[in-house]
Amino acid sequence: xECKDVSDRRIVGQQLGRRxxxxxxxxxxxxxxxxxxxxxxxxxxGKPFPTLFWLTCPLLAREIGHxxxxxxxxxxxxxxxxxxxxxxxxxxxxxxxxxxxxxxxxADEKAALTANxxxxxxxxxxxxxxSNWDRLKCLHLHAAHELAEANPVGRAVLxxxxxxxxxxxxxxxxxxx
Length: 177
Description:
The protein has helices spanning 6-16, 58-69, 72-82, 84-104, 107-115, 119-123, 139-148, 152-160; strands spanning 24-29, 35-40, 43-44, 47-48, 53-55. By secondary structure, the chain is mainly alpha-helical. It has one domain (6-162). The strands form two sheets. The chain has a three-stranded antiparallel β-sheet with strand order 1-2-5. It has a two-stranded antiparallel ribbon with strand order 3-4. Helix 7 (139-148) packs across helix 8. The longest helix is centred in the middle third of the chain and has 21 residues, at 84-104.
């Protein structure tokens, strides 16, 4: 279902710092009612768009950016390789993402993507379009996926953050109204 709420489209645009591409719906809202995660349709402008869940919350984006700058992509990837149960749980999360993406595609979209040779690559890629499921790409992707579905790396990321929502005295998105 497309996001038809003009206010949500405007706020998501402000959160991202640009007009959102493609068809999306708000998957998760913070306790103040603002979008935190959107689910983007897997085809944008006729081309594959493998990132289903997009983190829009500016507070989370900033805080997770700090973790990435501190090398946590590599740390968590190493942890995933050292812990078979974590690696297996991540593979299951990737499989669920592939299934969701496949369900969202219409028969016409599948036919068009098959014709141009991109369907197999789209439906076979995991979270954020990752082809090697033993690797991590971006912690923002995993946190968004955890908030919307279930993702053990995303859970670890969110657990590392001091807060996952703005304080009531300083709600960042209220400035976008």
